Each structure stands twice: as C-alpha cells, then as structure tokens.
Amino acid sequence: MSCSKWQASAKSIGGSDLALRKLAKKLQWRRCPQCRIVVERNEGCKHMTCRCGHQFCFLYVSGYAGPTRGPSCS
Predict the structure, then answer these.
(1) Do the beta carbons of residue 58 and residue 30 sit within 8 Å?
(2) CA 34 to CA 21: how far, in whole Å?
(3) Interatomic CA distance for residues 65 and 34, integer angstroms
(4) Which residue has the higher pLDDT, 69 or 57?
(5) Upper half-sphere CA count for residue 48 (Cβ side, 13 Å)
(6) Going by C-beta distance under 8 Å and a sequence separation of 6 or more, which residues neighbour residue 1?
(7) Higher pLDDT, 71 or 51
(8) Which of 6, 9, 39, 70 is the most buried (most CB within 10 A)?
(9) Does 45 participate in catalysis according to the annotation?
(10) Quick check: helix, strand or coil at residue 8?
(11) 16 touches 42 (CB < 8 A)
(12) How far apart, in whole angstroms, are the C-alpha atoms of residue 23 and residue 4?
C-alpha cells in the first residue's frame, strides 16, 4: 500500500474504529502478526493460538518457536 493510499484510508476511519484502537492500546491488547485481528489475553500462558491458526507469543508478538527455543514465553 502506498503512503497516499494509507493516508486516505486513515482519514476515512470511523469513530468506532478509533475508539477500538484507543481501547486496545489502553488495555494492552495485541494484534495477531499474521491476520492482524485484535487478541486479548486475560489469563494463563502467553503462548497464543489465533483463530487463523497462527501461534505467537503475546508478550513479544513474535512467532512461537516452542517451549525451549527463543525468548521465554511463560
């Protein structure tokens, strides 16, 4: 997407979309790195499996390399 297309789409964002973005930031929700849907973690492990099937660490918002590889996601 070009800069001009992004700027045009940003201007067309409705009030409810802006409210959702502000709420997501305030409550520290994350976006799935693959499908970009907003994901909320309210308890348990930081290992997430999105509804699109992508696995990622909620803390680092990066791909999940398994329990013994990469940064700790516990």
Answers:
(1) yes
(2) 18
(3) 15
(4) 57
(5) 26
(6) 9
(7) 51
(8) 39
(9) yes
(10) helix
(11) no
(12) 27
Active-site residue, selected from the candidate residues 35, 45, 50, 57: 45
- Tens digits of per-residue pLDDT, 15-67? 667 788 888 889 888 889 899 888 888 888 888 889 999 988 888 766 666 66
How many helices (H) and strands (E) the chain has is answered by: 2, 5
Phi/psi region, residue 38 (left: phi>0; alpha: psi -120 to 50; beta: rest), is beta
Q: For residues 41 and 70, give the distance between their C-alpha atoms in angstroms, rounded to a whole number.
A: 20
Tokens, residue 21: 């973005």
Q: Give the contacts of 31 (CB within 8 A, at least 6 positions apart).
A: 37, 38, 39, 61
Residues 6+ apart with CB under 8 A from 55: 47, 48, 49, 63, 64
CA atoms within 13 A on the CB side of 11: 5
Q: What do you get for the CA distance between the two ends of the chain, in Å?
A: 36
